[in-house]
Design a protein that fits this description.
The complex is a heterodimer. By secondary structure, chain A is α+β, with helices and mostly antiparallel strands. Chain A folds into 3 domains: 33-138 and 200-253 and 258-291, Aldehyde Oxidoreductase, domain 3 (Alpha-Beta Complex); 370-470 and 638-785, Aldehyde oxidase/xanthine dehydrogenase, molybdopterin binding domain (Aldehyde Oxidoreductase, domain 4); 488-633, Aldehyde Oxidoreductase, domain 4. Chain A is 28% helix and 23% strand. In chain A, the strands form 7 sheets. Chain A has a 7-stranded mixed beta sheet, sandwiched between helices. Chain A has a 5-stranded mixed beta sheet with strand order 7-15-14-13-8. A 4-stranded mixed beta sheet of chain A has the order 18-26-27-28, sandwiched between helices. In chain A, strand 19 and strand 20 form a beta hairpin. Chain B is globular and about 55 Å long. Chain B has a 5-stranded mixed beta sheet with strand order 2-1-5-3-4, with helices on one face. In chain B, strand 3 (50-53) and strand 4 form a beta hairpin. Chain B has helices at residues 24-31, 86-93, 103-116, 122-128, 140-153; strands spanning 3-9, 12-18, 50-53, 56-59, 72-74. By secondary structure, chain B is an alpha+beta fold. Chain B has 2 domains: 3-77, Roll (Ubiquitin-like (UB roll)), CATH 3.10.20.30; 86-153, DNA polymerase, domain 1, CATH 1.10.150.120. Chain B has 5 helices and 5 strands. Classes of the chains: A alpha+beta, B alpha+beta. Chains A and B meet through helix 1 and helix 18 of A and helix 2, helix 3, helix 4 and helix 5 of B. Bound molecules: FE2/S2 (inorganic) cluster (2 copies). One FE2/S2 (inorganic) cluster (FES) sits between chains B (97-103, 134-137) and A (200, 253, 511).
């Protein structure tokens, strides 16, 4: 309708954050609060021979000490997995118990063993020193590929070869035939290394059981409080759901790691019920490093087949995906349905086959991390294409363009059916790539690069063209693929008698700016001010239901639910307006917050209609009072944002240090509600993707110790690692949701990683280097430059 | 076994007994309930806890409360009366924050920078933020926010883009 959608409205949530008035979980202080400290296994794999808690229990200020046995004896099971992937032969995946605290055996460094609860966090921590735990350390396995081999330690005794599942997708016979006829085959064996999400706010949970009302309240650092409530009620603790309130207040970043239901959430609730006092647990950063679910960790062999013309004719890949010690909430979906299904990329490859092994190791659980599966798919494809271009002596940009899927808008032309189970919604890929090339000045760059090389300077350029499946839903589809929950979204739009608007949404904002973007949608459609709309999220008591925020779904799915409710408001409002204006509804039009009788100056404002709905003295017969509507929206398809990222690097030959000189991102996320916020999402994603390429990576030693479990050792991207980013967009609306939006939360992180690596390989091409493993640290690059190409 | 300290926090005098081992950040967050100062790590590596002590940016997780006896402390809550310090305005105008967790520390680190270098270059800003991690923004808009504030504090035109 108006100009509010599409404009960079400044964020309404900012005021509390810039004044220090945010309300994060650890900021909450309840009357009589006690504090939990969890003693964790220092070993990656160890039998627990004995636990003696006597001394700790008797220490002054200690409220209670619980072991895994105490929890198991109370009949509590474990943390469930929310997605089922089956073996190729149809057998159900292996899903070993993930106990809240372990009883006999610790399976990764950081596995919870004992919980100490005391009057202060210092007392709890001191008392933890008094608990005696006798371990027998066992040999550990940390590498997914190695873990599948015979004779390796078993993480779970009943999972032979440490396999949770093996899975395949695509037409193997057709793909093998394509390879048999190929003119050229490019092969890449690589690790998409394990990275640690590191949201800046450590996880925290407060459990509060109130005996007088039998009510449980959980405050938690969660991206989806309703799902946590459902899991606590239906699976973990068997709580009566109507007596459970889960609040995710301000949350300091998630990037996937706060989607999942964690043991500590159940522990503080369980213990609060047992003790009748509120209990707070907050992770220390070193604890976050070993207990927040990690991301990526795929070991793959991938091949791409070309005909003599440079057309892609086949793709096959085999991946060992590290699950860690237990299956986290969405873990099995990530390497399978969020990775294998994206291997069509933007290209017309007619034959594709992938197999994936989900493998247990003695490491922290791995689950969705910004992009979840799609960065892995993009990396695989975009690295293969660049390597192929080098081998076939073709221009990497032209090789991509040559193989692109032709344009289709999903309205006049049908969606594009991939060979790997998806139907893309709409896409016009070439202009996006061309725009990115224009932004970087591709032809000039090649000249500059040539000159630089002559002067002993190593410049490189790298492309990455990605597509992702976002707006996760539709429920029926994800259900068929193994999801154990629906993935719709809900929104309630409540018009107050004075015409102000309260909106209750099931997705959750932990930086994405929902309070602004969603208010823009409502303000635009109702013709009220953004400041007249309040967005409420993150409290299961206020919001009817929701499936949370991940998979770039909040706007595409949650925003659509808002639109549905707004439409219901307008429909009922028109009835009231027609009555007041003594006109027929058909003769009314709604614009700028007023219903007007077409062709007249007779009109009534939105506020008057709202008031009439609640003071229904003069009111249409048979119409209910009130103006308050809820909607559930379950989309018809995923959305498919795409884009092209180009990175320019310079490598210092003396140190091997890679400098990102320019980074161009031209993305197509469909329609945009708030360009400022979308740009911000892209920037943040780029930093994470570039961070994976150059800096980050979990390092385990043989015994399963995470060697870089602190900010002293794990290289987080910092301000001086980046240039200013250059962003632009093309707009290809999503044809199947009312806003035409596709989602922007993960795009930056999905596209950027291979662009950086490709740029470094381009810079290093004079050295005969075709591939290096991430992260591309100075040492790794320097060694490669001095190894005469024999990397 | 408390140790008495006198400290001025955000313009208000406090005479308080503190545990000898209490960290300054815990004193601020738990004793004074000034929860705008955040804790992001346990190795002084993230800067979420940055505050000003006698005008200089320090990481409040690396100091004990007893160490600020006699000092003047400013936290994000005390940076301005109405949240209208040019840095606060800059972060809002230039979308310098997303989840907001790093933001107080970023703003306090930037306040120190602008005191010492009122007109920093982009590289100087990036360098000054080396001790502050943001996982959300990619730093792009944080740099712009600080440039905005620098311009504003020097009376230059700022673009309300
Ligand atoms: S909390 Fe990380 S530096 Fe102080
Ligand atoms: S805004 Fe989230 S960490 Fe900086």
């Amino acid at each position: 309708m108006g100009s509010i959608i599409g404009s960079s409205v400044k964020r309404v949530e900012d005021k509390r954050f810039i004044t220090g008035k945010g309300n994060y979980t650890d900021d909450i202080q309840l009357q009589g609060m006690t504090y939990a400290y969890i003693i964790r296994s220092p070993f990656a794999h160890a039998k627990i021979l004995s636990i003696n808690t006597e001394e700790a229990k008797n220490a002054e200020g200690v409220v209670a000490v619980f072991t895994g046995k105490d929890i198991a004896d109370s009949g509590v099971g474990g943390v469930p997995c929310g997605w089922q992937v089956n073996f190729r032969n149809g057998d159900t995946m292996k899903e070993p118990l993930h106990p809240l605290l372990v009883v006999n055996k610790a399976r990764h460094q950081g596995d919870g063993v004992v919980m100490v609860i005391a009057e202060t966090k210092e007392i709890a921590k001191d008392a933890a020193e008094l608990v005696e735990i006798e371990y027998e350390e066992l040999p550990a396995v940390t590498d997914a590929k190695q873990a599948m081999e015979a004779g390796q330690p078993l993480v779970h005794d009943d999972c032979p070869n440490n396999l949770s599942f093996d899975w395949e997708l695509g037409d193997k016979a057709a793909t093998d035939a394509a390879f048999a006829n190929a003119h050229h085959v490019t092969t890449l064996e690589f690790t998409n290394q394990r990275v640690i999400p590191n949201a800046m706010e450590p996880r925290s949970a407060i459990g509060h059981f109130e005996p007088a009302t039998d009510k449980y309240t959980l405050y938690t650092t969660s991206q989806n409080p309703h799902l946590t409530r459902l899991l606590l009620s239906a699976f973990v603790l068997g709580l009566p759901e109507h007596k459970v309130r889960v609040v995710a207040p301000d949350v300091g970043g998630g990037f996937g790691s706060k989607i999942f239901h964690y043991a500590e959430e159940a522990l503080v609730i369980w213990a609060s019920k047992a003790l009748g006092v509120p209990i707070k647990w907050t992770a220390e950063r070193s604890e976050s490093f070993v207990t927040d679910a990690h991301g990526r960790d795929h070991v793959s062999k991938s091949e791409m087949a070309f005909d003599a013309d440079g057309k892609m004719i086949g793709l096959r890949s085999s991946t060992a995906a590290n699950m860690g010690a237990y299956l986290s909430t969405f873990a099995p979906a990530v390497p399978t349905y969020l990775h294998g299904t994206l291997l069509q990329g933007l290209y017309t490859t007619p034959a594709i086959y992938i197999e994936v092994y989900g493998v247990f190791t003695n490491t922290t659980a791995v689950d969705a991390y910004r992009g979840a599966g799609r960065p892995e798919a993009t990396y695989l494809l975009e690295r293969l294409i660049d390597k192929a271009a080098l081998e076939m002596n073709m221009d990497p940009a032209e090789l991509r363009i040559k193989n692109l899927i032709p344009p289709f808008d999903g309205v006049n032309q049908p969606g594009y059916e991939t060979k790997v189970a998806l139907t893309y919604d709409s896409g016009n890929y070439e202009p996006t790539i061309r725009r990115a090339m224009e932004m970087v000045g591709y032809e000039d760059f090649r000249k500059e690069q040539k000159e630089a090389r002559e002067n002993g300077k190593y410049l490189g350029i790298g492309f990455s063209a990605y597509i992702e499946a976002c707006g996760i839903a539709p429920s029926a589809v994800v259900g068929a693929l193994g999801a154990r929950a629906g993935l719709f979204e809900s929104a309630q739009v409540r018009i107050q008698p004075t015409g102000k608007v309260s909106v209750y949404v099931g997705s959750h904002s932990h930086g994405q700016g929902h309070e602004t973007t969603f208010a823009q949608i409502v303000a635009d459609k109702l013709g009220v001010g953004v400041e007249d709309v309040e967005i409420v999220h993150g409290d299961s008591e206020a919001v009817a239901f929701g499936m949370g925020t991940y998979g770039s779904r909040s706007l595409a799915v949650g925003g659509s639910a808002i639109v549905k409710s707004v439409e219901k408001v307008l429909e009922k409002g028109a009835k009231i307006a027609a009555h007041k204006l003594e006109a027929s509804e058909d003769d009314l039009e709604f614009a700028n917050g007023q219903w007007t009788v077409k062709g007249t100056d007779k009109s009534i404002g939105f506020g008057d209609v709202a008031l009439t709905a609640y003071v229904p003295h003069d009111y249409p017969q048979g119409l209910e009072p009130g103006l308050d509507f809820s909607s559930f929206y379950d989309p018809a398809n995923f959305t498919y944002p795409y884009g092209c990222h180009i990175c320019v690097v310079e490598i210092d030959p003396d140190t091997g240090k890679v400098e990102v000189k320019r980074f161009i991102a031209c993305d197509d996320v469909g329609n945009v509600i708030n360009p400022m916020i979308v740009d911000g999402q892209i920037h943040g994603g780029l930093a994470q993707g570039i961070g994976q390429a150059l800096l980050e990576g979990a390092i385990y030693d043989e015994s399963g110790q995470l060697l870089n479990a602190s900010y002293m050792d794990y290289a987080m991207p910092r301000a001086d690692d980046f240039p200013m980013f250059e962003t632009d967009r093309t707009v290809t609306p999503c044809p199947h949701n009312p806003l035409g939006v596709k989602g922007a939360g993960e795009a930056g992180c999905i596209g950027s990683t291979p662009a950086v690596v490709n740029a470094v390989m381009d810079a290093l091409s004079p050295f005969g280097i075709k591939d290096l493993e991430m992260p591309l640290t100075p040492e790794r690059v320097w060694r490669a430059m001095h190894s005469n190409g024999s990397n | 076994m408390g140790i008495p300290i006198n400290v001025k926090v955000n313009g208000k005098e406090y005479s308080q007994e503190v545990e000898p081992r209490q960290l300054l950040v815990d004193f601020l967050r738990e004793t004074l309930r000034l929860t705008g100062t955040h804790v992001g790590c346990d190795t002084s590596g993230c800067g979420a806890c940055t505050i000003l002590v006698d005008g200089n940016a320090v990481k409040s997780c690396t100091l004990l409360a007893v160490q600020v006896d006699g000092a003047e402390v400013t936290t994000i809550e005390g940076l301005s009366k109405n949240g209208d310090h040019p840095l606060q305005e800059g972060f809002k105008e230039e979308h310098g924050l997303q989840c907001g967790y790093c933001t107080p520390g970023m703003i306090m680190a930037a306040a120190d920078l602008l005191t010492n270098n009122p007109n920093p270059s982009e590289q100087e800003i990036r360098h000054a933020l080396e001790g502050n991690i943001c996982r959300c923004t990619g730093y792009h808009n944080i740099v712009k926010s600080i440039q905005y504030a620098a311009d504003k504090m020097q009376g230059k035109e700022v673009s309300h883009g």
